[in-house]
């Protein structure tokens, strides 16, 4: 599509208006603070008005800067091309960086510096608020601040945020390649973890649900709000980009349409995540409808929900009406299409104003006591003190399948992967390509098992008994991966995801890069996969890592991710059909499987015969009285043997069937080749031996 210079000069969102929209959040913050009495001095210890108003203001700036920095890095890594005129082949020195890519990196760098400073300010002001000490340079204030950073969870968490923000700023200023920018974005997203762990309600009832829903909420907000702010800041470059690009690149309207279409998909996922996680988190803090209307906390929740509905409506307008007119659709030459960019930026400014107001209210909400108390009751049982939950009923075969405690993090992962897989399969079928139904059934079965592991009986009893933990662990690393691997998700992704043609990296390009990366080549090496699969069991159970996974939520999430991935990679190497950098021959697969089975059985025998209790401070102090802890541990060793060996035998059968099938396929291929060439290879082979025989001196 050819565009004139006049068409390339698109209207842009003025930066002063963007700044004004962001200031709406400060006004909302001040209004919410007055309504809730945030600015009033406390009777016991008062840190002063500077801390009372400075802390929510610093948090507001922190949240916006963090979201903008991370979202700018994500957009640079996955939305815009890194090079202008990408269709022109040549050395990297002769290529010119795309102006939108340059602009995104500059926005990320500037926002990351603000993020780091704001995080440091929040750290100091949080100590001032908790200690009741006004800001000062006195020795007692400095000493208390050091103790806060080193000994208190909130201090350590905010120190981690400061370090992550500083590392993000350092890397984003130093790197230029899309891969490095992508890893920097992942580093920035790691800041969500400490924020969720010490956020509002993190110590309240249903700790796991509160932390996971808050983490998902922050993830959605970062990508949604940060993406919009970044686009508004990038608007001048988008409007002028077409004037300086090579002829091979898109025109101004096409660039804007492409960027908005790709961001719209990301924003849609973020919207669903924010809405669902917000409902879950609110349900944990508000028990009755009256509390929702009669308390300041509930009233602010209602305001947030109303703003979210309005934002969803504006987002629907973007996706259904404006974006198609920006990409040169049928109405591209009409008057409505010509006015679409201006209306788009106006709506974006309205969205930013609403979002900033919501963030301002949320900042005050985080310092407002919710209707549901967050402290443990004074008569809490040992199990409640250790795990955060009351003891479940005595375990039976039935309760493992009827008792549920939804883990919203893994629930969101399961729902996303199931919906994506079904949509990808339907997309293939609509264009006439075949995808086996049994692969889809295997994938969905694996996801269902994983959901049961993380939210069903194994998750509930895995926190209070060793045998329950072993059921969870073995099913997680031995059973679910078999079904997931047989679903061949990478192959489905390669066949269904669209391929980018403008030099940027979408989901398909990132998956291909990961599959062919050096890290993938190392981690999927047969020996590395086997050692990681078997050796991590010993490291986990006979080091403090097991206790860390039991005591801390982050440790439990790490355990789940690690053992699911190690089991998946091991099964992928042995029986998977997805592409790998290197795949061992069939006989080596069976040897590796046999060796890991022997090691697995040996470790299970050691645990089942041990008289020393593993993690006695945890399992020995649970106070359930159902059975002695050492007997439960020995039973767990027996379960480890049974639940580990049966899936291993199943993998052996599948590997043997694949070996036979591949041999038959290779035989048929050789027969077809022989029929086509008249056994030319065999004739050449026989002539070689005849010539050798003629040259032999003993003939």
Count of all domains: 2
Largest sheet, described in full?
A: 2 strands, antiparallel
Radius of gyration: 29 Å
Work out the number of β strands.
Answer: 2
**Unreliable stretches, pLDDT < 50, 5 or more residues?**
1-8, 87-91, 244-248, 329-335
Number of helices: 29
Structure description:
With 699 residues, the protein is mostly helical. It folds into 2 domains: 11-40 and 48-86 and 95-365; 400-498 and 506-680, no CATH class. The chain contains 29 helices and 2 strands. Strands 1-2 form a two-stranded antiparallel sheet. Helix 9 packs antiparallel against helix 10. The model is unreliable at 1-8, 87-91, 244-248 and 329-335 (pLDDT under 50).
Keywords:
699 residues; mainly alpha; 2 domains; two-stranded antiparallel ribbon; 29 helices
Outline the fold blueprint:
Blueprint: H1 5-8, H2 15-36, H3 49-78, E1 83-84, E2 96-97, H4 99-131, H5 139-151, H6 153-174, H7 178-189, H8 192-197, H9 207-244, H10 252-285, H11 289-294, H12 296-326, H13 335-365, H14 382-387, H15 399-402, H16 408-430, H17 437-455, H18 457-461, H19 466-486, H20 489-496, H21 507-515, H22 518-523, H23 526-541, H24 545-551, H25 553-575, H26 586-609, H27 616-619, H28 629-677, H29 680-695
Antiparallel strand pairs: 1-2
Summed up:
This protein has 699 residues and is an all-alpha fold. The protein is 75% helix and 1% strand.
